[in-house]
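for the recovery benchmark. tokens below, seq after
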């Protein structure tokens, strides 16, 4: 197998004068971080523009919503099939293709004269976005020596959520001063910069080959399962019986796991022993996304704050994450990825827990410092968790392992707001409902701590 395909771990091991050992290419780590930022930025900035898109293209809000769903559904559905495909092709070629097509789809979406054009461009962009999401951790993990992976993985793991949180801020400025078409063009300079870095610094290794036909069936099964869950959670506030729509998700996933596309993923997770870690990634991302959504609704609704003031308050989270993320990778390389990831999850849980007594009398600063604490925990957790998964990956399965953790994180970000909306059924739409949603977010984050603690305990016993 190694003779037929260049494994991702070996693709960056060759340079003039040092053909035997890996070469640290931090420029490629920067490229991975830029792509992570722009991919997560896209998932949030477009949501803010849906009202303007509806008015600009003279379509209903329901149709305009497909500008966001059209990106998210293929992204989630294709993550695991993309990981399987990328384990068999050249990283450099696949990355340049994905970045180029992702940027081209952004330009097409910006120039859309009618809704069907826009939705088609967004579906295609979501497909290429899935390739980018898988390649980001692979690019960062293979760009440096294994002992520096914690530090390297902290770059995309920090910049990705930063893009998710700053998306509404950037989107608000663009919508106020330029218009909705600009939210699609803002990503082009970042894509160009990342492509130039890869073109100049990534070694030429491996070739592209088309994915097998089974990948389409895998994508259909995964996409259908995710769609049923999201639809059920979205409709649940109207009537709790809508939650029954989520029931088909389990058999759809079971069928996929028995297919040739699902078996390698299950085998990779089993061999690496990182199923619990991926579940922790999903739970922590869902808790963060739910709390972020609820606090934004609280500030704009009950407090009646402006979009700019709300965005500035919410920026405390990414600021805390960026500051702590600079140390998270170093701690993981020196102290170990497992204890660092566990500490980060615990700090995030504490920050969310301190938000639970939320009251209408709270000032912006009362919310901001708690968000900063939760963000610091996410900064400590992100890179070490990703390094833990990538380091445990079996040989030749690095992209598959990366796609699994990216799927877990993406599902968490997608499910968080839907879970928060469903949780408000436990109270009214004011502070009581918001507290119910935050309680659910705390529970999700606490479950991530428990899962990481269990993984740490098992690994310690195995080492002993």
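predicted aa per position
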């Amino acid at each position: 197998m190694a003779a037929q395909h260049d494994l991702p771990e070996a693709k960056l091991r060759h340079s003039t004068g040092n053909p035997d050992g890996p070469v640290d290419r931090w420029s490629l780590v920067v490229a991975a971080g830029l792509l992570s930022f722009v991919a997560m930025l896209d998932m949030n900035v477009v949501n803010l523009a849906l009202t303007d898109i509806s008015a600009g293209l003279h379509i209903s809000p329901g149709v305009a919503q497909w500008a966001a769903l059209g990106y998210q559904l293929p992204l989630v559905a294709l993550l695991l099939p993309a990981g399987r495909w990328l384990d068999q092709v050249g990283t450099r070629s696949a990355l340049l293709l994905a970045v180029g097509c992702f940027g081209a789809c952004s330009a097409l979406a910006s120039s859309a004269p009618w809704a069907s054009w826009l939705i088609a461009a967004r579906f295609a962009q979501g497909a290429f976005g899935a390739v980018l999401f898988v390649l980001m951790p692979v690019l960062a993990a293979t760009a440096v020596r294994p002992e520096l992976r914690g530090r390297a993985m902290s770059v995309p793991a920090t910049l990705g959520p930063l893009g998710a949180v700053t998306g509404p801020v950037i989107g608000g400025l663009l919508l106020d001063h330029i218009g909705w078409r600009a939210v699609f063009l803002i990503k082009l300079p970042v894509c160009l910069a990342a492509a130039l870095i890869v073109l100049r610094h990534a070694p030429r290794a491996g070739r592209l080959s088309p994915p097998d036909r089974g990948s389409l069936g895998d994508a259909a099964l995964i996409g259908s399962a995710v769609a049923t869950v999201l639809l059920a959670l979205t409709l649940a506030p109207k009537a709790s019986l809508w939650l029954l729509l989520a029931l088909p998700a389990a058999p759809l996933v079971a069928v996929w796991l028995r297919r040739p596309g699902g078996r390698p993923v299950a085998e990779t997770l089993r061999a690496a022993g990182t199923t619990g870690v991926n579940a922790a990634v999903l739970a922590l991302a869902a808790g963060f996304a739910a709390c972020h959504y609820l606090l934004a609704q609280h500030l704009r609704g009950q407090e009646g704050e402006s979009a700019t003031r709300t965005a500035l308050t919410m920026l405390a989270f990414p600021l805390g994450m960026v500051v702590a993320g600079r140390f998270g990778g170093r701690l993981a390389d020196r102290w170990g990825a497992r204890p660092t990831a566990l500490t980060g999850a615990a700090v995030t849980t504490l920050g969310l827990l301190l938000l639970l007594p939320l009251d209408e009398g709270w000032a912006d600063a009362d919310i901001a410092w708690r968000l900063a604490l939760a963000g610091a925990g996410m900064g400590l957790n992100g890179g070490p968790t990703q390094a833990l998964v990538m380091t445990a990956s079996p040989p030749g399965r690095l992209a598959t392992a990366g796609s699994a953790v990216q799927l877990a994180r993406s599902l968490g970000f997608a499910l968080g707001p839907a879970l928060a909306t469903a949780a408000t059924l436990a109270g009214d739409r004011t502070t009581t409902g918001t507290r119910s949603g935050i309680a659910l977010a705390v529970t999700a984050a606490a479950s991530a701590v428990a899962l990481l603690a269990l993984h740490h305990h098992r690994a310690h016993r195995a080492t002993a």
